[in-house]
Structures are given as structure tokens and as C-alpha cells.
Amino acid sequence: MLVGVTTARRRRARGVAVFLTLAAVLVVAVLVLRPVLREPGPRPAFQMPVACGETWQLGTYPGHDDYDVDFFPLDGASWGRPVLASFGGTVTVAGINGTLGERTPSNPDGPRGTGGGYWVKIDHGGKWETQYLHLLEPPLVREGQRVERGQQLGRLGSTGNSGAPHLHYEQRRGWEKVEAYFGGAPSGITTDDREYTVHRTSRNC
């Protein structure tokens, strides 16, 4: 009789333990998935990632991927131009994407690298983020740092898989690329089914 009671108690204890474990897993799943499933917030008031008042060429080409924007200055030297935060946020990546290659101002035709070279990614909250690739040198910001709109992130270069000094730029909503907007207006760079360019003037003041 005592053996039967002990066995029943053990079964009940195991049942309680399993229930508590499942409840804990459910709580963790809710905590993890809730921010992932939440709808993105409103689009931040992004500005162009270059100096106020400057007019730049924005372009794309076949195979560049939809909504990817390449920035080229229309006047003056390209190498070393300041790359600025489009909006305030927290730096989540500041490092190297792929390999750097050897293209520099003194060796502009050196071997290409792979990927984005020196780059920065910023979380703007509400599941919005921006990315800045092919910087000339290590970023001027670090992971976890809070930055403000217009703060310099680095300098324009040609690291990674880049044929000439330029800034590769992306805006992402819910971690999916979308058409970049600047000052509330669409950039005009959408599909990559053809090569085309537009001119836009920065209001990142």
C-alpha cells in the first residue's frame, strides 16, 4: 500500500514539474516573439546621409537588389566625404562586412574585397533601421552607442565589393528593405530591373 502511495506522489510531482516547465517555456516564447510580431512603428523622419545642402546622385543597377541606393557626390572629391546618420538611434553594428580589399585614395584600382567592407547599422526603434556600407576607414562610432541625426558615422570609401568610392545605403522596416524616404519624400530608387539615377539635395541640417 505504501509503495502505491509513493508511486502516485511521484507521478503527481512529475506532472507538476512538466506543467511548470511548459508554462515557463510559454512565458519565454511570448516574451521573445511579442516584439518580433509587433507591427513596425511609423517611418522616422529620415534625411539623406550626407551633408546639408549638397546635391548627390542616387542610383541603382540590375542585380543591385530592390531599394538599394548608391550615393555619389556631384561636385568635389568622393573619397573621404562625411557619412552621416539619417536619424537618431542606437548603433547595432560598426565593423567589417566581408573583406576590405585594397582600394584606397592612393590605390583606387586595387583589388576589390567582398561584401560591404567597413559598415554601420543603426536601430531607430519601431523596427526601423538603416545601413551604411563601403566606408573608407573603421567607423567613427561603436556598437551600443547612441547617435543623433546628422552625426558623422565615418567617411565615404570603397571597401568591400565596390568598384568606386560611394555609399551603399538601405532603409529597412521590420528588417525588410523598403524604398528610402528623405525629408518625407520618396527617393525614387525602387526596382533594380534597370540602371537609372536621380538627383536629390540633402536637408540633413
Automatic annotation (TrEMBL):
GO terms for molecular function: metalloendopeptidase activity. CDD domains: M23_peptidase. This is M23 family metallopeptidase. It comes from the Bacteria. InterPro entries: Cell_wall_metabolism_enzyme, Dup_hybrid_motif, M23ase_b-sheet_dom. It comes from Cryptosporangium phraense. Residues 78-178 form the M23ase beta-sheet core domain. PANTHER family: MUREIN HYDROLASE ACTIVATOR ENVC, PEPTIDASE-RELATED. The lineage of its organism: Bacteria, Bacillati, Actinomycetota, Actinomycetes, Cryptosporangiales. It holds the Pfam family Peptidase_M23.
